[in-house]
Amino acid sequence: MPSLATSPPRxxxxxxxxxxxxxxxxxxxxxxxxxxQCRSSQxxxxxxxxxxxxxxxxxxxxRLLASKYGMKIFQAFLKSEFSDENIExxxxxxxxxxIKSSFRMTSRAKKIFKRYIQAEAPREINIDHKTRDVxxxxxxxxxxxxxxxxxxxxxxxxxxxxYPRFLRSDIYRTLLDSISESVKL
Length: 185
Fold this sequence. Notes:
The chain is mostly helical. The protein is built from 11 helices and no strands. The chain has helices spanning about 10-15, 20-25, 30-35, 50-55, 60-65, 70-80, 85-95, 100-115, 130-140, 150-170, 170-185. Helix 7 packs antiparallel against helix 8 (about 100-115) and helix 7 packs across helix 10. The N and C termini lie close together (about 10 Å). Residues about 1-45 have low confidence and may be disordered.
């Protein structure tokens, strides 16, 4: 397994790329090598983070969000900037669309509204008043599309603002450099 880095920057130390947090125990520090397991550049195994996967992230936000590791790293970046409510809302909406039960849909729609949409919500997203009112009406008879307008707005904000900042960030650049170096070895 290639060595990725011996001492990762602080913003990468808290990322847990392995699903098995129990192995790490209380030691959240760990090192990048133990968390980001990338096979050779020809590897087809999707269990690790590889250069090909990472190079796709810079092509579009959609590709970044389609990657398990890209999503986790983008979330960590947004959290470090205190703006993770957008990705959180977007993901909650993606899960909401999968609900089949009308009872569960009604209950979940109300929770999403209270947490992200209503004025002064604990995780309020940045949407206009008109969209907020449309959603308020939509959740009276919830459907899979009742949050689509807000989700589009949030996705656009991430695409125009957060995503370009992520691509310029130290967290992304350091990770990309370390993966690039491991491929060269």
